[in-house]
């Protein structure tokens, strides 16, 4: 009769030394543990300044001021964290292009005084691009802009502005009155002129003021369009659902405010798959667009060009 070999008792798990313990747990567990405690030698991304300061110019509308620091503030601070001299000033968005451009001139002069820079990189969102183009015509600013890159600027206007102005008197008065109220609350130093500002964004008005082929001498001029909602697979923020549908019927694919075709100007750099709000880090609902990463990549392009 065969003799049964005695079964050796399992060795006790040695927890006194981390290495044997991790070995028993297996390679995958060891990798997880190391990731949890391992330190990168240089965890911060390298500084990547541009040659000239970057000024982020906002567009029409003041509701975005509910965000702490205001429109594009978070994006400017993100760029500063990478070593870029970035600024995101504010002007009253419910005013005419000429008035806004005059205030922008003051803001840009402050940036130049603080940095000592001879030239500036302007990154202008929405109607801010029209303000920048208007200001660039001023001989006092000739040669002061190294670049002007626009994002969803209505270089050919937006039919949505005409749609609002064409509403019955009571509805138009309510819409304009609400925007005037917000404008006064946000910028009490300068009274708003919303209806005149809206009128300047209609396709006919923009065509009368700006040649879509006119660029800025001595500056790299380029543009991004935006699209979302109807005619795309990109979700749109709930507040822009109705404007997006209205504008789609009037002018085709759009980002909720500006038609995609209207945003083309200078060198076409592509289309941002995001609605008008998400392009600047706002919006409600599903995410999908990283505004800070977008401005990071844009600054990469500026550096590649020595700007």
Describe this structure in words.
- By secondary structure, the chain is of the alpha/beta class.
- The protein has 11 helices and 6 strands.
- The protein has a 6-stranded parallel sheet with strand order 2-1-3-4-5-6, with helices on both faces.
- 39% of the residues lie in helices and 11% in strands.
- The protein has a single domain (54-304), classed as Rossmann fold (3-Layer(aba) Sandwich).
- The mean pLDDT is 86.
- Helix 10 links the parallel strand 5 and strand 6.
- This is Lipase.
- InterPro entries: AB_hydrolase_fold.
- It comes from Rubrivirga litoralis.
Question: Summarize this, please?
Answer:
The chain has 307 residues and is an alpha/beta fold. It has a single domain, classed as Rossmann fold.
Sequence-ordered SSE layout with sheet pairings:
Layout: H1 18-25, H2 27-37, E1 54-57, H3 73-81, E2 86-87, H4 97-115, E3 120-125, H5 128-136, E4 145-151, H6 159-165, H7 169-186, H8 194-199, H9 203-209, E5 220-227, H10 241-251, E6 267-273, H11 291-304
Spans of at least 5 consecutive residues whose pLDDT stays below 50 are none
Q: How far is the N terminus from the C terminus?
A: 91 Å
CATH class: Alpha Beta
Order of helices and strands: HHEHEHEHEHHHHEHEH
- Give the helix level as a range of percent: 25-40%
C-alpha Rg (nearest Å): 26 Å
Biggest sheet: strands side by side, in what order? 2-1-3-4-5-6
Summing up helix and strand content along with how strands pair, one would put the structural category as alpha/beta
Report the CATH topology name: Rossmann fold
Tally of individual domains: 1
* Proper CATH architecture: 3-Layer(aba) Sandwich
Largest sheet: 6 strands, parallel
Organism: Rubrivirga litoralis
Region (Disordered): 1-20
InterPro entries: AB_hydrolase_fold
Protein name: Lipase
């Amino acid at each position: 009769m065969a003799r049964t070999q005695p079964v050796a008792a399992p060795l006790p798990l040695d927890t006194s030394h981390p290495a044997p313990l991790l070995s028993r747990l297996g390679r995958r567990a060891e990798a997880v543990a190391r990731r949890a405690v391992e330190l990168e030698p240089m965890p911060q991304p390298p500084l990547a300044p541009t040659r000239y300061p970057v000024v982020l110019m906002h567009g029409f509308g003041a509701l975005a001021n509910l965000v702490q620091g205001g429109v594009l503030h978070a994006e400017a601070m993100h760029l500063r964290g990478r070593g870029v001299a970035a600024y995101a000033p504010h002007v009253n968005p419910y005013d005419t292009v000429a008035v806004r451009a005059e205030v922008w001139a003051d803001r840009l002069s402050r940036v130049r005084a603080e940095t000592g820079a001879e030239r500036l990189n302007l990154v202008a969102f929405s109607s801010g691009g029209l303000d920048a183009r208007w200001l660039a015509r001023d001989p006092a600013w000739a040669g002061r802009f190294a670049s002007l890159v626009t994002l969803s600027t209505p270089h050919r206007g937006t039919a949505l502005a005409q749609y609002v102005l064409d509403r019955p008197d009571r509805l138009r008065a309510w819409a304009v009155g609400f925007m005037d109220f917000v404008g006064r609350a946000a910028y009490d130093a300068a009274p708003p002129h919303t209806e005149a500002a809206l009128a300047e964004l209609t396709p006919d008005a923009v065509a009368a003021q700006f040649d879509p082929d006119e660029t800025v001498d001595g500056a790299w001029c380029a543009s991004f369009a935006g699209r979302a909602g109807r005619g795309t697979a990109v979700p749109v923020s709930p507040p822009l659902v109705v404007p997006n549908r209205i504008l789609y019927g009037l002018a085709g694919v759009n980002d909720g405010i500006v038609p995609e075709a209207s945003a083309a100007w200078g060198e076409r750099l592509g289309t941002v798959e995001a609605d008008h709000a998400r392009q600047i880090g706002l919006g409600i609902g599903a995410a999908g667009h990283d505004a800070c990463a977008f401005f990071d990549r844009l600054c990469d392009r500026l550096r590649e060009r020595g700007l």
